[in-house]
Amino acid sequence: MSSFKLRFGLRAKLLLLSSFLFIIPWFGYQYVWEMEKYLRYGQEQTLVGTARALATALHERPNLFNNQASFLPSVEQGKDLYGYQLKEAIQLDGLIHDWPTKEHSQHYYGNDNILFSKSNNLDGNLAASLNFTASLGKYDKYLYLFFKVNDNHTIFRGANARSITHNDHMQLSFINNRGQFRRFIVSNKQAGWLSAFELIPSEQANKDTLIPQPMIQGHWLLTPTGYNIEMRIPLKAVGDKIAFAFNDVDEENGEVLSQIGSANPQSASTLGTILVPSPEIERIVNGMRHTNSSIWVVDHHHRVLASAGSLKTASGFWQSSKISEQPLISSKYWQQFKNSVLLPLYYKILTKPPTDFIDKLYDAQHLTGDHIVSALSGHAKSQWRLTTDQQALVLSAAYPIFINNNVKGAVIVEETTNGIRTLRNQALEKLFTIILAIMLLGALTFVFFASRITSRIRQLSSQAEQAIDEHGRIKSDIAISKTNDEIGDLSRSFARAIKRLQQYNHYLENMSARLSHELRTPIAVVKTSLENLSLQQNQASENLYIERAQTGINTLNEILSNMSEATRLEQMLVNTEKSAVDIIKLIQGCCQGYQHIYPKHHIELVTDNSLPDDCTITGSAEHIVQLLDKVVGNAVEFSEDNKVTVTVSLKGKYIVMQIINNGIHLPEQMLTSLFDSMVSIRPNKKQTQPHLGLGLYIARLICQFHLGEIRADNNYQPDGVTITISLPIAKQ
Amino acid sequence: MSKRIAIVEDEAAIRENYADVLRSQGYQVQTYANRASATQAFNLRLPNLVILDIGLDDEYDGGFTLCQQLRNLSATLPIIFLTARDNDFDTVSGLRIGADDYLTKDISLPHLTARISALFRREDALKKPIDTDHILNTGDLTIDSQRMTITWQQKTIDLTVTEFWLVHALAKHPGHVKNRNQLMTDSKIYVDDSTITSHIKRIRKKFLSLDDNFDCIETVYGMGYRWNTH
């Protein structure tokens, strides 16, 4: 049993089986993922629905789009302008720092935008000694413009010059809301506040009158590379067509060398368009703001007409419908435990949706993307994409706006999936907690169950072990288990087997007694017949045979008495009453007796000095004598130097007798079984006495009756055998 | 007038062997194979001595039953159990029921006949006047070996034949230790050690029932027994 092989016990097996419980969290996880997929699909539908609803609000309302340059078949960069929605107020100081510094929010005007030039470059193309970048923006009721002009010679208007065009000046023309064409010239005598003039056309050519125009406000700032102009125009004055141009003059009162601009500002027909986010559409869009989405409306040139909401707060419909916080266990400690132990553990697996992410996909003016292209060609489309910093997943839906069966724009609605992810995380948190609890409980139950079964089986096995001692004798019954299961059955069949074995053992033990009893009668028949024969016959020759037969019969008889002696002793011991026996006196008497019985041997009695005067044991004197007879008889028989030593000493609560003889050793494996029934280690020489090996068995029975022990050991130098008998002394 | 002996024994061979021996000794012998036939015969007329086996056919204790019936018919009829059962329990039971002797079947025929004649002798002797030649006196003990009676402090002790011979063997030489073998040969019994022990125990009990202070039979451990006179 005590092998060091790795045991794979029942408990381990059950635990292994219980590891299938780990499928449950996986399954739950899968389920939540599946749910998320459906939620996303739902979100997509909702989003498309929102886009459709908004588009519906904008369908067939041409007046919303009319004053935008939407009728253009195409827009030309630089000529068709777009007014950004500015986030903060602009200080008119000629400095660029309060403008958004987006690359694409500025447009560069150089040699490609020359409207007129007197000089050519090496290629023969027109060249200009001037270029500039322009930015447009809309804030509140004003359209803001910023020009960063690179000019090698900045020439102001002379202090007394009458002309305003023989210096560096800017021309600005637009068509106002009422469709009137208006032209302006900005021409400063010095850096600082702008001097703006309106050209009032007259009937006569070149006799246009100039009147100062305070509507155009701004600042002229000199820079190392030229100058900056920052200006604003009231929005209500500006229609949807505009052009601006810079005229370069390189010497005092010089001629205009070149003109660069967005479009020719000379006539209404040559103007470019301007698009500023439309307040009407914005109002409609703002009505949709509560949808937790970010909404854009673009015209068919992908230019933003209106926008509302921001992607950062647009985490979708699910954001608002958080799982109601009804904690399973509303204990403070549980919350603490959850926050300090469980959640960090969960978020090793889960990811929190980022609250901060950057999406630079769209500039504020111009939206791109397949979904928009698809919507502008008349098909609603939704798509998933990652933000440009890969932090959040964005769902966009685009829906076309029709006016007279033509697509005039599109509504784009965007949301992040953060709402769904938060929802998923909450669901998973809950799921994980429950699963942990279930697994813990399940594992504990399994362990308990396994331990229970194992302990029951162990108990059974130890009972089975204990029921039979090392000699194969049955010592005790197995307690019959009343449990009505397989282990109970096992226990009961064990008990039954043990009982049957006991009966069989009992039968075997009684065999000798019964055999002797059964054989007595036929032996008696033979014996009496022989005796009768010998009484009747007188012839010596026949008498010889009769005598031999009688010797045989007598030997048989003796065997039978020996056989039944042990059984009878067992029966007698049951009925024997114990009394106080003076053990020392008894041993002394016995040893004297043995000296008489075995005159050829020297029987020496050695009593220990530590022995008290009266040493009484509780028992039966006759049987102790019988025990000594057997042991001393054996010692005498095996003695080789005709000397047997009997020592008596007191060890603790036991009186210890040792009967020592010098002679052959006992075989090692026989030392323990020597005292079993029917064991004889006599050499197979011709024996004078029949021998069944019951002598020492009887000795052991008597020892057991006195609650003592008997042991055999080999001793060396000189070789011999010591039989040690310990008997408990009577309590005083 | 020869004595009539009845043998009740279910084993025919043994029955007839014993009967033959006893007949050759000059006794009249009637044999019975079972309790029923024996009872029938005994109700008509009692023999002078009965030899019983305990197990009769399928009656495990048939002999005991028969012995009780016989004791009810006669208090003095000598009854001998001759059986294969040699355990203590049966011996004690047999003697307690009122048998005069309990012998096992491994007894030799000469021993058996000696025990039988001893019983008859006692029966005859009881009818005779006391002859002092056979009387042995040691202390409070008086043994009449002819009538086979023992008295202790003038009270008769009722002993079986075996017990009588054991006491006789011990008291003949007071102070001498008799070992078991000597006791067996003296009292013409052939049993093993433990049976001797139980016989001695019973003898002590019988004396003690008359005299609480009886301690004349001393056990000498490892050697045997000794009769002490005070």
Automatic annotation (TrEMBL), chain A:
Its EC number is 2.7.13.3. Coiled coil: none annotated. Residues 451-506 form the HAMP domain. It is found in: Membrane. GO terms for cellular component: plasma membrane. It holds the Pfam family HAMP. Keywords: Kinase, Membrane, Phosphoprotein, Transferase, Transmembrane, Transmembrane helix, Two-component regulatory system. It catalyses: ATP + protein L-histidine = ADP + protein N-phospho-L-histidine. InterPro entries: HAMP_dom (IPR003660), HATPase_C_sf (IPR036890), HATPase_dom (IPR003594), His_kinase_dom (IPR005467), HisK_dim/P_dom (IPR003661), HisK_dim/P_sf (IPR036097), Sortase_His-kinase (IPR022510), TCS_sensor_his_kinase (IPR050428). SUPFAM superfamilies: ATPase domain of HSP90 chaperone/DNA topoisomerase II/histidine kinase (SSF55874), CBD9-like (SSF49344), Homodimeric domain of signal transducing histidine kinase (SSF47384). Its main location: membrane. PROSITE patterns: HAMP, HIS_KIN. Residues 514-731 form the Histidine kinase domain. It comes from the Bacteria. This is histidine kinase. It comes from Litorilituus sediminis.
UniProtKB/TrEMBL annotation, chain B:
The modification 4-aspartylphosphate is found at residue 53. InterPro entries: CheY-like_superfamily (IPR011006), OmpR/PhoB-type_DNA-bd (IPR001867), Response_regulator (IPR022305), Sig_transdc_resp-reg_C-effctor (IPR016032), Sig_transdc_resp-reg_receiver (IPR001789), WalR-like (IPR039420), WH-like_DNA-bd_sf (IPR036388). Keywords: DNA-binding, Phosphoprotein, Transcription, Transcription regulation, Two-component regulatory system. One of its GO terms (biological process) is regulation of DNA-templated transcription. One of its GO terms (molecular function) is transcription cis-regulatory region binding. Residues 133-229 form the OmpR/PhoB-type domain. Residues 4-120 form the Response regulatory domain. One of its GO terms (cellular component) is protein-DNA complex. Residues 133-229 bind DNA. The keyword Lipid biosynthesis does not apply. Pfam families: Response_reg, Trans_reg_C. This is Proteobacterial dedicated sortase system response regulator. It comes from Litorilituus sediminis. The gene is pdsR.
